[in-house]
Design a protein that fits this description.
The protein has 4 helices and 11 strands; from the N terminus they run H-E-E-H-E-E-E-H-E-E-H-E-E-E-E. By secondary structure, the chain is an alpha+beta fold. The relative contact order is 0.21.
Length: 243
């Protein structure tokens, strides 16, 4: 009787092992019947929003005179910007920074003996944020004309943005998905098979670079702000079941 149960247990173990191996083989075979493709979505667009600014610089023997000069220069800059058709509310001036500059003093033996006051350095930065891209671009190029009026100004390069970027991203995802589907269909059609449902999909990072530039892509995604005309791209990796 004991031998009978022994054979029963051994037989059941063999059947169970065969079932497990059969399922594993079926799963492996099923997983191998897939095709993985990478779809690409690309588009070019022109920025519709600009951010530009600079800072006023004043050197003065006393703070009061320096403040007065900064105020006079700020008015000249503001008058110039608004004369070009920019809404005053688009211009923001920050608080005035005051730095007390000193210079080293050495004794007759050439040893450092301390420092003495030299002058006050004052600066005030400003920023324009506007959809008037052409106007602000022209201002950024021509602002140096204020130097002839005694204004010391340190101008920055403009930064360009696009307010409809979310819609661009959605469009790119659609294009990349359609491209992936077309590639997968081409592969399975040539193999005499049929394309099944999507098993998995993985979206890559968005790359926004300057149009007609050699700007490199970044693993974490690129976001160009230095070019007015831009190119956006994204990839999507899709795995399809093959029937």
């Amino acid at each position: 009787m004991k031998n009978l149960w022994k054979f029963v247990i051994i037989g059941a173990a063999i059947v169970l092992a065969a079932a497990v191996l059969g399922y594993a083989y079926t799963y492996k075979y099923r997983c191998q019947n897939t095709v993985t493709v990478t779809g690409l979505g690309e588009t070019e667009f022109t920025s519709d929003f600009i951010v530009w600014g600079g800072s006023l610089q004043v050197e003065s023997p006393d703070a009061i005179t320096g403040y007065a000069k900064i105020e006079a220069d700020r008015k000249k800059v503001m008058d110039y910007i608004t004369s070009k058709g920019i809404d005053p509310s688009s211009v923001v001036f920050q608080f005035v920074n005051v730095y007390k500059e000193t210079e080293p003093v050495y004794n007759a033996q050439g040893n450092y003996a301390g420092s003495r006051f030299k002058c006050y350095n004052l600066s005030q930065s400003f920023t324009i944020e506007s959809k008037e891209v052409d106007k602000v671009e022209n201002i950024s190029r021509e602002i140096s004309s204020l130097i002839a009026k005694g204004v010391s100004i340190d101008a920055q390069m403009p930064s360009y943005y696009y307010t409809g970027l979310d819609n661009v991203k959605l469009s790119l995802i659609e294009k990349a998905s359609a491209d992936a589907l077309a590639r997968a269909r081409n592969i399975v059609d040539n193999a005499g098979a049929r394309l099944g449902k999507v098993m998995s999909a993985r979206l890559g990072v968005f790359q926004i670079t300057g149009a007609n530039t050699n700007e490199e892509f970044s693993a974490g995604g690129s976001f160009n702000t230095s070019n007015r005309n831009k190119k956006a791209r994204v990839t999507i990796r899709v795995e399809y079941r093959v029937k």
